[in-house]
TrEMBL record:
One of its GO terms (molecular function) is phosphatase activity. The keyword Hydrolase applies. Residues 19-89, 148-218 form the PAS domain. Pfam families: GAF_2 (PF13185), PAS_3 (PF08447), PAS_4 (PF08448), SpoIIE (PF07228). Keywords: Hydrolase, Isomerase. Gene3D superfamilies: 3.30.450.40, PAS domain (3.30.450.20), PPM-type phosphatase domain (3.60.40.10). PANTHER family: STAGE II SPORULATION PROTEIN E, STAGE II SPORULATION PROTEIN E-RELATED. This is Peptidylprolyl isomerase. It comes from Streptomonospora alba.
């Protein structure tokens, strides 16, 4: 007889044969484990699922106790639960892994929920029923969820984040111990909108407005603000919250407070460094531009004017003052932008006191406000300083010494209409600017001194007065190129000859400086000597060629026009050694150039030409240097055409006056052009005589 027939099935009161068969099939085939124990604690019925859980066949269980079927530890759990149920203590539950149970898909033993219930009727408890449910999937899900939560909390801890929630209206309903640990708030102080009270007073209103706007618009809340901690200091936090929606309904808000103090400080430091680097680069550019502008300033007035522009554009000063130290009287003289403008008188306590302080101490005087001004000048004339500060609109002052080889030569002063804090970096910039200003001032003073010397030397090489000859009016014009301090090579001369005629010459020795000046002086003296012995132009130039070969270098290129004029007949005899053609201006006809073929410059062997023409009364012959017709923007050929055009537009009264004529030609030819060379002219005018000359 099989085990199944040897153990009678449990009584099932009220069930028909079909119901009993259905229940038997259901218990046997159900996916959950099922067993029935009799009053002695022995298995009476075990379905396939539970037999698989035990790892034995169902025939191996019936009629046996759990200790005969299971591992001792599992058996003890079973028997204790059965005893409790049979004793009327009610259902017993347990969760565990069975030692001999089948593994799950991962190879681990399954976890089971074991529940024992009493099998009873009106007569009492007749046995115990075991139901086993597989909890492996749920357990794994719970473990995975728990691990996720642990990882999430670890991540929040690592990133200094505090998670918080609020209801749909933006009110905090759940406590957040982490936030209260940071802020020291109680739960009552934190809930609702009390968390906002931990914000810095200057930030609270802004954060509250942003939170209200986010709640009203159901939009993401994202704000950075300072939070007061328990220690009383403030740290930067970024608070971000998002709305949790279910369909169109807002359920709640979930957010996180993140401590970004370190990041904020790093960003702030990076921003300050970037700003400092940008300011340093800007100061370098400004200093380079200031250096370039000062390098173009040739005179003291131009230096003053350049510093005024630099003070406004590069320093932001409302006024700039430059002073020169007079070593004779040891006083500062204020410099103006006009040539030679120097003010020796005291110009007010602010200007003299601050600049004298800088020169005396040989270090910058920096007062960012009136209080600092009084503190630095406490030993000065106190009433005068107090009165000045009471009436002035100036609120900050910077005065710097101008040093040359370590010795003061002047002072530079900036004033500002608003208080100003001068950083160490800006102080370095101002001192460098003062150094460039000192160099420019020294250079300008040297330029002016050399320029005056050059002008004096140039003037000494030219005749002081032109000869007065009856029947002839002569006039000369000379203007040095303003950008040069060297002596030029342009020259002119006129003198009477023993035979009563008048000789005139205008020449140009190429180059500048002493070499050109001495060469011009030798040619001038040699020409005078030759003219008195053999006055004819061709003979004079031939003699000059011989002298040139003996005394001048091959690179000393010299051109000139030499003429001899008979005032009684108007006859002009002329030779041209590579120079520009003379201009003839007439009263009754248009001007014209003496288009004679020019010979070679002096020193280049050639047969010298000799040209004759007559000058009518009322006409003017003009000799000129290339500085009149040629410059960087105008070639010689176009300059000559323009010269004829300008001369043709001269009024009659100008044509009849050689002085006015030369002034008119210079103004007309240089208008719109920058003079970059010496300009020299010599005019000979034959006036209309009322009666025949004696």
């Amino acid at each position: 007889m099989s085990t199944e027939t040897s153990v009678p099935p449990p009584r099932m009161s009220g069930l028909g044969p079909i119901d009993a068969a259905l229940l038997d099939s259901l218990l046997r085939e159900a996916p959950i484990g099922f067993a029935f124990f009799d009053e002695s604690g022995r298995y009476q019925r075990v379905n396939r699922a539970l037999a698989a859980i035990y790892g034995v066949g169902d025939s191996g269980c019936r009629g046996r106790t759990p200790s005969e079927v299971l591992d001792p530890e599992d058996a003890a759990v079973h028997e204790a639960a059965i005893a409790a149920v049979l004793a009327g203590e009610g259902p017993v539950s347990s969760e565990r892994r069975l030692s001999d149970g089948e593994p799950d898909d991962t190879g681990e033993r399954r976890r089971w929920s074991l529940d024992w219930y009493p099998a009873q009727s009106d007569d009492g408890v007749h046995g115990a029923v075991l139901i086993a449910v597989d909890l492996s999937d749920r357990y794994r899900a719970e473990v995975a969820l728990r691990r996720t939560e642990e990882r999430y909390r670890s991540l929040l801890t690592a990133t200094n984040q505090v998670v918080w929630t609020a209801d749909a209206d933006g009110e905090v309903r759940e406590d957040c111990p982490e936030w209260r640990t940071i802020t020291g708030q109680t739960a009552e102080q934190y809930l609702g909108r009390g968390w906002l009270d931990a914000a810095h007073p200057d930030d609270r209103d802004q954060v509250e407005r942003a939170w209200n706007d986010a709640v009203a618009d159901r939009a993401t809340f994202d704000e950075i603000f300072r939070v007061r901690t328990q220690s009383g200091d403030f740290r930067y936090y970024r608070s971000r919250a998002v709305p949790i929606m279910r369909g169109d309904s807002l359920m709640e808000w979930v957010g996180a407070h993140s401590d970004i103090t370190t990041q904020h400080e790093a960003d702030d430091m990076r921003q300050r460094l970037t700003q400092q680097l940008g300011e340093a680069a800007l100061r370098t550019v400004r200093l380079q531009k200031a250096t370039a502008d000062l390098a173009e300033a040739l005179t003291v007035g131009e230096v003053v004017q350049a510093m005024a522009e630099i003070g406004q554009s590069a320093v932001g000063a409302d006024s700039t003052t430059l002073a020169e130290l007079d070593r004779d009287d040891l006083r500062l003289h204020m410099l103006g932008d006009e040539p030679g403008h120097r003010t020796a008188s005291r110009a007010g306590p602010d200007r003299s006191a601050t600049m004298e302080y800088a020169v005396r101490e040989r270090r910058p005087f920096i007062a960012g406000n009136p209080a600092e001004m009084r503190a630095l000048l406490e030993d000065e004339d106190e009433p005068e300083i107090v009165e000045f500060l009471r009436t002035t609109e100036e609120r900050a002052w910077v005065a710097l010494p101008l040093l040359s080889a370590g010795q003061p030569i002047g002072a530079l002063r900036f004033t500002f209409s608003a208080s100003r804090e001068v950083s160490d970096e800006e102080k370095v910039f101002l001192e460098a600017l003062a150094g460039q200003c000192a160099l420019a001032l020294e250079r300008a003073k040297l330029f002016e001194r050399e320029h005056r010397t050059a002008e004096a030397l140039q003037t000494s090489l030219l005749p002081e007065d032109l000869p007065k000859v009856k029947g002839i009016r002569m006039q000369a014009f000379y203007r040095s190129g303003t950008q040069h301090v060297q002596v030029g090579g342009d020259w002119y001369d006129a003198f009477p000859l023993p035979d009563g005629r008048v000789a005139g010459v205008l020449g140009d020795v190429m180059g500048k400086g002493i070499k050109a000046a001495t060469g011009m002086s030798r040619v001038r003296n040699a020409l005078r000597a030759l003219a008195f012995s053999m006055p004819e132009p061709a003979d004079v130039l031939t003699g000059l060629d011989r002298m040139f070969d003996a005394t001048e270098g091959v690179d000393q290129v010299t051109t000139l026009v030499y003429f001899v004029l008979d005032s009684e007949t108007g006859q002009v005899e002329l030779s041209n050694a590579g120079h520009l053609p003379p201009l003839v201006v007439t009263e009754n006809a248009g001007p014209w150039l003496l288009e004679t073929e020019p010979d070679t410059p002096l020193g280049v062997s050639s047969e010298r030409g000799h040209h004759k023409f007559f000058v009518q009364p009322g006409n003017t012959v003009v000799l000129y240097s290339d500085g009149l017709v040629e410059n960087r923007k105008r070639a010689v050929a176009s300059g000559l055409d323009e010269l004829v055009t300008v001369a043709s537009q001269a009024r009659p009264e100008v044509v009849g006056d050689p002085q006015h004529m030369l002034q008119y030609l210079v103004e007309g030819m240089l208008a719109g052009y920058e003079q970059d060379d010496d300009v020299t002219l010599l005019a000979v005018h034959l006036p209309v005589m009322d009666s025949a000359p004696e």
